Q: What sequence folds into this?
């Protein structure tokens, strides 16, 4: 069996399991670009609503999954090439809110593709981008640039 074939099987299995888990347990939606996501706060109208969410993205070379707490923003990432969840560090403590993560990509050439992952506090409007396993805050717009 070729080494390329040995690598493809775990990737296919992880992507399939991620999609199945996402569709059956998180009640997400998948669009034509292979992105899966769900909107925090939409899972239930009672106080027992889901605490965690999962967002996945199948890129050309790898699949990415983020598991996150919708109330605290605490999050972990997993690539299809590993079975380990990696905690994403914070640059500073963040307040409780209503968090959502989105993955944008693929970005770049097919042999060196990457993606960009963004987290938003849907209540306060603050956003972060993930870089080197750490959430980095985006610069806040000036008062003139603030949405009304």
A:
């Amino acid at each position: 069996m070729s080494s390329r074939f040995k690598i493809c099987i775990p990737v296919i299995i992880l992507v399939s399991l991620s999609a199945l888990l996402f569709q059956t347990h998180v009640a997400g939606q998948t669009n034509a670009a292979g992105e899966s996501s769900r909107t925090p706060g939409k899972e239930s109208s009672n106080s027992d609503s889901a605490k965690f969410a999962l967002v996945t993205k199948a890129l050309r070379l790898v699949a990415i999954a983020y598991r996150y707490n919708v109330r605290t923003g605490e999050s972990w990432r997993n690539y299809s090439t590993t079975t380990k969840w990696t905690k994403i560090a914070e640059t500073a403590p963040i307040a409780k809110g209503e968090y959502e993560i989105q993955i944008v990509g693929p970005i770049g050439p097919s042999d060196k593709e990457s993606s960009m992952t963004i987290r938003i506090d849907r209540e306060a409007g603050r956003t972060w981008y993930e870089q080197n396993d750490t959430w980095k805050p985006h610069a806040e717009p000036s008062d003139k640039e603030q949405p009304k």
